[in-house]
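Title: Prediction job returns without error message
Component: structure pipeline
Severity: low
Priority: P3
Assignee: unassigned

Description:
Job completed but the reporter wants confirmation the result is attached to the right record. Sequence as submitted:
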Amino acid sequence: MRGASILLYGVICYLVFFLTFLYAIGFVADLPLPRTLDRPMPPASGAIGDWIVDLALLGLFAVQHSGMARRGYKRWLANWLPEAAERSTFVLMSSLALILLFWQWRPLPGVVWNVDHGWAWWLLYALSAFGWLIVLSGTFIINHWDLLGLRQVWLRARGAAYTPPAFVDSFYYRIVRHPLMLGFIIAFWATPRMTTGHLLFALATTGYILVAVRFLEERDLITAHGEDYRRYRREVPMICPWPRPSRQARTDFIPSKR
């Protein structure tokens, strides 16, 4: 029964995540939903309190997301929560932090740019959809079910031992090391109507992604995969998909010692 309860818990956490992910798409794209980045738009007051609330919500998500991913927190959590439920708990808490952000976000007046018709409008929305597609499909390349905690609780319910997924460097991951983060950045910035609030959201989330990936996630990946990841990091760019010279090409350019 304990294994079945943990499996049920994992399924509930996953469903909460999936609904939150779907709402996030509409929230960022300003689709007809009760609350989005730009709805309901307040009068052009420019109240400093709205800026403080939005920054606090973004900061809360950053602290939760990075803090719960650290090894020290995972060791503490293991003292009172089954190890198989750790990832599902992380997914649930991240989803709740986003739900709070959706609920309490204060749209900020002011328009930075506005494309209201024509091919450019369609192109920007298509580019945003492509970013979300990269995010979702990229999770399946590295193991969607493990990333979101379902594999762990399923193995626990069956009484099978958990083994971490193998290191993956195929498809998107041959172009950039963190395609999911690239997809988020594309989705956040590709919008026909960039308001002040949307710009704040895009700047803050992009900054968080760059800092967290460079100084936190990369360190954890080196710890987990060792020299395989160090080699991978030398050969594949982090987020910007600029081509790098191959290992052989780089070797050809090393001056010979005389």
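Comment from assignee: result matches the submitted record. The chain has one domain: 2-243.
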